[in-house]
Amino acid sequence: MEIKNVSIFCGAHEGKNPLYAMEARKIAAILSKQGINIVFGGGNVGLMKIISDEALDNGVEVLGISLKSLHELELVNPRLKEVVVADTLLGRKDVFMDRSDAFIVLPGGVGSLDELAEVMASNQLGIINKPIGILNTAGYYDDLISWMKKAVDEGFISHANFDDLIISDSCEDLVKKVINQDRPADEDWTNRLGL
User: Fold this and answer.
1) What is the pLDDT of residues 63-118, one digit of tens each?
2) Using an 8 Å Cβ cutoff, are 93 and 64 in contact?
3) Residue 20 parent element (H or E)
């Protein structure tokens, strides 16, 4: 499947380490220079603003998927030509999954973790069949990855579901692997459940 639209899940803050902002700008530039459009949370703050501005500056389409409560506070990037406003977090995640061919998670907070878990579970259950990448900038996700490995060891996450994740600390490497990943056939989703 050709990757035309990539969702980027990331923080509404820039974080304390300046590398987070630098790598967010870099990954948005790499994707957009390959003609890949960006789907994101719509925010005009934090890493969200950085990736959307970088992608817009590089001439690709940027879709913001906002939440009604945030949209009413006018926290959406005013440069966007298209914004979808969802009533609920569940509805918002449905739009992300429908409008994206792949997903990349940058450093972020509870929202980014929620979105990662939703997409992982949807892949695992065969609801979608799309690449998921984690940019592990400065080891930000080391502890989460350790927990996932523990869950695999303890039999709560299947090897197939964990191995489905693309994890890298390099923007170039991550983008290359995400856009070139060979996906399992749709009928093989039961293997990802460990059944």
Assistant:
1) 999 888 765 565 788 889 999 999 998 999 999 999 999 999 999 999 999 999 99
2) no
3) helix 18-33
For 156-185, give the DSSP string. Answer: SS-HHHHHTEEEES-HHHHHHHHHHPPPPP
Burial of 135 (0-12, 13-18, 19+ CB in 10 A): buried
d(CA 47, CA 187): 36
- Structural domains present in the chain: 5-193 (3.40.50.450)
Cα 63 to Cα 148: distance, rounded to the nearest angstrom: 30
The CA-atom distances, in angstroms, between 37 and each of 8, 31, 53, 89, 178 are: 10, 7, 12, 22, 14
Q: Which residues are paired to 34 by β-bridges?
A: none
Q: Could you read off the pLDDT of 16-72 as tens digits, one per residue?
A: 999 999 999 999 999 999 999 999 998 899 999 999 999 999 999 999 998 887 655
Give the pair of three-digit tokens for residue 49: 């603003």
